[in-house]
Amino acid sequence: MTTTASLDTLSAVRQRRTVPLTALSDRPIPEDTLLELLTAAQWAPNHGLTQPWRFAVFTGAGRERLADVLADSLALHKGAESATPEAVETQRTNQLKAPAWIMVAAQTPEGSKLPPFEDDWATAAAIQNLLLAARAVGLGSKWISNAASMHPHTMQALGFEAGCRPIGLIYLGYVDGEWPQGQRGEATDRVRWFRES
Ligand SMILES: Cc1cc2nc3c(=O)[nH]c(=O)nc-3n(C[C@H](O)[C@H](O)[C@H](O)COP(=O)(O)O)c2cc1C
């Protein structure tokens, strides 16, 4: 596997940004690079070593399959009348604006004595690892949780095992031009310290 990471951890944390689809180039992402990001995800903390994360990766023409499934899920969510040919076409066009999409779900092993929400949290941590690794190799990303991506039909139609819970739909792409600016308050506004006198 090629190691392409170029940013140190804190720079990747500070510079990771949600990038709109319109700011992405259509340059394909090498599969080696995607595998590197998925490997970073694999190293997230997870209670009981359940490794609960499951990924489905869509590139090239594979993105059309994702678009069709999301269009169907949206129709199930909003009502069949919303699945106009234009709406389906918009979905397909959007899907092709990012070179790679990853559907992420959490699975709790049968008989696990730990609460399933811990597997959801671990999977969210895996996503964050992936997004930071993406930033380190120069890729913009977005974590999406809209109704279509979170719909049970999406899980089932994409072949996730029964019981898998959707955690996020991610897209990735090289950024054409400027990265968007981030916005955050001061950490001190959200922290209380308990110190010995
Ligand atoms: C759990 C989760 C779900 C999200 N879902 C969406 C979404 O459905 N649509 C969207 O536009 N952004 C979504 N985002 C991205 C946030 O809008 C984004 O992180 C926020 O605007 C801060 O920008 P930044 O990521 O550049 O710091 C989601 C982020 C998280 C963590």
Automatic annotation (TrEMBL):
InterPro entries: NAD(P)H_nitroreductase, Nitroreductase, Nitroreductase-like, YdjA-like. FMN binds at R16, R17, T18, H47, W143, I144, S145. Gene3D superfamilies: NADH Oxidase. SUPFAM superfamilies: FMN-dependent nitroreductase-like (SSF55469). One of its GO terms (molecular function) is oxidoreductase activity. Its cofactor is FMN. The keyword Transmembrane helix does not apply. Its EC number is 1.-.-.-. Residues 13-174 form the Nitroreductase domain. Keywords: Flavoprotein, FMN, NAD, NADP, Oxidoreductase. Binds 1 FMN per subunit. It comes from the Bacteria. Belongs to the nitroreductase family. This is Putative NAD(P)H nitroreductase.
